[in-house]
Design brief:
Blueprint lengths: L3 E4 L6 E5 L12 H11 L5 E3 L2 H5 L15 E3 H9 L4 H12 L2 H15 L21 H12 L2 H7 L3 E4 L9 E4 L14 E9 L3 E8 L5
Antiparallel strand pairs: 1-2, 3-4, 5-6, 7-8
Helix pairs in contact: 1-3, 1-4, 1-6, 3-4, 4-5
Length: about 220
């Protein structure tokens, strides 16, 4: 990681910190903020419809779950698509659904970051695909993560190894998503793991936010 915080799980004391205020590109760890706003501003059974822009504005080859224009899913399934599948087109569709546009949603993201006390963050999109004006810091990500993991549903979804999507009237495909987070899949074991979010772009490189609980902390 380009920046990191290591905290003692028992005392909360920061044991090691490197450039925690440095502004860096978050890649898909951005989606923690996206899902915070989704949870705060929608009901789980709301229908999210995928526009042409939501589907086709993402970079070719970037993370997606193959949604097509005019298909739709409930918000709850969208949250799984974003957090388990890291689906960029799903993040776009949720942004449009809640913010009226991806730009409007980015304004909401920046307002929420300010409310949470983030000092070195600016969001330009809901998915974390590269934009020079889209950045945060390790410290700000920890603040965002603290808010995220206070939501029991979001914490649960971010700790889900696989999720089965079944066909519906508005979405014809049957498929299973598997998270890239190897602590969640237990490819690497870690005591008390709750969940988290991975990310990668060529500019950001590997990014990671993870939460675990030990001894009540």
């Amino acid at each position: 990681a380009q920046s990191a915080i290591l905290m003692d799980a028992n005392t909360g004391v920061i044991l090691y910190a490197k450039n925690i205020d440095e502004r860096l590109y978050p890649a898909s760890t951005t989606k923690l903020m996206t899902c915070i706003l989704a949870a705060e501003n929608s009901a789980l059974n709301e229908t999210v419809t995928f526009s042409h822009d939501a589907v086709f504005s993402i970079e070719l080859g970037s993370s997606n779950i193959g949604m097509d224009e005019n298909e739709a899913m409930p918000m709850e399934e969208c949250l799984y698509g974003i957090l388990v599948g890291s689906a960029n087109e799903v993040a776009n569709a949720v942004a449009e659904h809640i913010g009226g546009s991806t730009e409007g949603f980015a304004e909401m993201m920046n307002q929420k970051a300010s409310e949470l006390g983030c000092l070195d963050s600016h969001f330009a999109n809901a998915n974390g695909l590269h934009n020079d004006d889209h950045y945060t810091s390790a410290y700000d990500l920890s603040v965002i993560a603290r808010e995220f993991f206070q939501n029991e549903l979001l914490a649960k979804i971010s700790g889900t190894p696989t999720q089965h999507f079944e066909p519906s009237e508005n979405q014809p495909d049957d498929f299973i998503l598997r998270t890239h987070h190897k602590l969640v899949t237990q490819d690497y074991t870690y005591e008390g793991i709750i969940g988290g979010k991975t990310g990668y772009t060529d500019k950001a490189r590997q990014t990671l936010v993870t939460c675990a609980e030990r001894n009540g902390m």
